[in-house]
Structure formats: C-alpha cells, structure tokens
Amino acid sequence: MEQEEIVGDLDQSVGYVLKQVQASLHTAMDEVLRPLGLTVAQYACLELLGQHPGLSNSELARRAFVTRQSMNLVLRRLQERGLLTRPAHAAHGRALPTELTRAGQSTLREASVAVRAVEQQLFSPLSQAQQRRLREELAACAAAAIAN
Amino acid sequence: MEQEEIVGDLDQSVGYVLKQVQASLHTAMDEVLRPLGLTVAQYACLELLGQHPGLSNSELARRAFVTRQSMNLVLRRLQERGLLTRPAHAAHGRALPTELTRAGQSTLREASVAVRAVEQQLFSPLSQAQQRRLREELAACAAAAIAN
DNA sequence: CCTCCTATGTCAGCCTGCTGACATAGGAGG
DNA sequence: CCTCCTATGTCAGCAGGCTGACATAGGAGG
User: Fold this and answer.
1) HTH marR-type domain location, by residue (chains A, B) (predicted)?
2) What percent of chain A has pLDDT over 90?
C-alpha cells in the first residue's frame, strides 16, 4: 500500500526510533505474559520485588514509571491472587513493605524466563558488545534526565 | 531515601533502561506540549501528517503505534479544532486521506521546535556520532522485530 | 460472474493510568 | 514544644487506549 523505501525525517529522529523499539518490546512482552495472566505492569512489579524485597508502593511506582495510584491497583490485584503480601499496618512510617509469596516467586520465575527470551530476541541484531554499549549510553541519558 | 549506588540486575537489562529513557522522553514532551494544548499522541499525528500528507487513519495509527480506534479519536479532536481536514466521503476506497490546514501547519511548527529541543536535551550526553549510531542500531532492532 | 478475503472506518464497552484531593506519619527548624 | 514540610497511602473522577464487533469497499481466485 505504501512505498516503504521512502524514508521520512521521522526515521531520522532518535526519539521516534526509540519509541518504535519500546512499542515492539511492550507488545512482545504482553504476548508472552498474557498466557501467564500477567500484564506488563504486573510483571514489572513482581520483578522489582524479586530483586528488591520490601519496597513500598511509592518506591515501586517510581521504578516502574507509573503513579502511586496506578501501582496501588496493581499491588491490590496481585495481593488478591496471593502473589504478594503487605502488612495491614505500617510498622514504622506509613510505607508498607511488600514481599513476594512462594506463589509470587514461582510466577515471577516463569515470567522472567519468558521476558528474558523476548528481550534477547528483540536485540538479537546487535552483538553482545553493542548491546552493552547501547545499555550504557541509554543509562547515561536517563541519569542526565533525572539530574536535570 | 534509597542508596542509588546499589545497582540491581534490572539496570543490567537493556529493556528496562530503554523504558526508562522512553518514559523520560514522554514526560518531557508532555510538559512542553501541554502549553500548546497538545497531547503527545496529537503531536505525533501532526508530525506524521506534516511529513506525509494524505495518510489515512489506519496508516497514521500504525506509524504512531496505537490502534485505529484511538487514532480515530485523535483525528476527530484535531479536526474539531480546525487543525486538519478529512473528506466526508472516500474518493476511491474507504481510506480518508487527511491533510493539515494552515492552522495545523502553524501549530505543528511550534510544537516541532519544542520537541526537537527536548530530544536534543535528552540525548545531550551523547555525541552526534553516538546518537547516529544509537539510532541506526535501534532501527535495526525495530526492522528485525517487524520482519519477525 | 460470484465468492472469499483483507483492509478500512466506526460504534460500544471496559480497563488502565493519571490528576486532584485528603488524612496521616515522621522529620527539620525555630 | 510547636510548627512547617515532605512523603506516603488512599479515595473519587476523568481521559486515553484497547478489545470486540459490525458494515462496507476493493481485490484475488476459481
């Protein structure tokens, strides 16, 4: 229908290409997570808790790039499914430290394997060295953006 | 509150860092576009039409990484504001070729300048050569993902 | 010529994420 | 000690995006 050889200026924009790859990643992740009954946001939450047990709702939200309110809903769903536990009352401040249950850890392991495969597939056009450099350069941009 | 020096495994994931940068870009774009009364999706639509006049709803949706239904709503809003025009009836198939009005082109120019500045700022930690290589490598991944 | 098959535009309903607001807990500073 | 100030959790309301569905236009293939 369209001549794809005609390369517009948008393909010259780093931001557009970045969005393109991110969209591909999100779609691919959604496809492999759906059979496990997980959304991408829910998976992100589990992965964060797997690597940093005891994170609070707000802290999880920041690291998953969503608001506290959205993360709150994610946590509630996962808690209903028995994948994680939160104390009813805060021991010290108001922050409620969250932890994975056995079931949560099990689900996370399954999901993590699938997502890792997806990621590996997506970045397969690049060598290991290229992937590492890509990650470092993107991390530099992210760090600068936060500092700003 | 948290020791940021502690680097978890997630920061070793290209996908996570990619998401981080993309989230920063989206937030920054939203901030500069809001004063112009535009959402990120609306800007994307205008930019696509500026570079490829006559694109249909479905084609715009694909290139903006949303569904036809979502793009349809975006187009309707922009049309109400007089920023673009669509024929009431299709000349040939069912596709309705969309074009920017003078007002649309004007708004696009303003927005485009602002967004370009944001992008330049975000990727400023990288040299021109690094940015170019980054874009090419990401484009390679995107192309492979589509081919798959 | 007639029959699939695909692509497009559109409607309805749902879910998710965000903004705005509020109460509360802890710490900083006078 | 009392007063801001910040951070957190949570509730309510709203906008945006997605899935599912339908009708229609055009082309492919027998």
Assistant:
1) 11-143
2) 82
Distance CA B148, CA A5 (A): 19
Q: Which bases along strand C come within 7 Å of a protein CB atom?
A: 7-13, 16-21, 24-26
Q: What is the pLDDT of residues B73-100, one digit of tens each?
A: 999 999 999 999 998 887 777 788 999 9
Query: Which burial class, exposed, middle or buried, applies to A107 when counting CB atoms under 10 A from its CB (0-12, 13-18, 19+)?
Result: buried
pLDDT in tens, B118-146: 999 999 999 999 999 999 999 999 998 88
CB contact under 8 A, B123 and A141: yes
Of A11, A14, A59, the CB nearest to B119: A14
Evaluate whether residue B139 is within a structural domain: yes
Q: Is residue B14 part of a domain?
A: no
ipTM attached to this prediction: 0.90
Angle between helices B14-33 and B102-122 (to 10 degrees): 140
Parent domain of B130: 35-147
Give me the CATH number covering residue A129. Answer: 1.10.10.10
Q: For residue B7, is it within any domain?
A: no
Cα–Cα distance measured from residue B79 to residue B101, given in angstroms and rounded to the nearest whole number: 9
The total number of structural domains in chain A stands at: 1
Please report whether residue A136 resides in a domain: yes
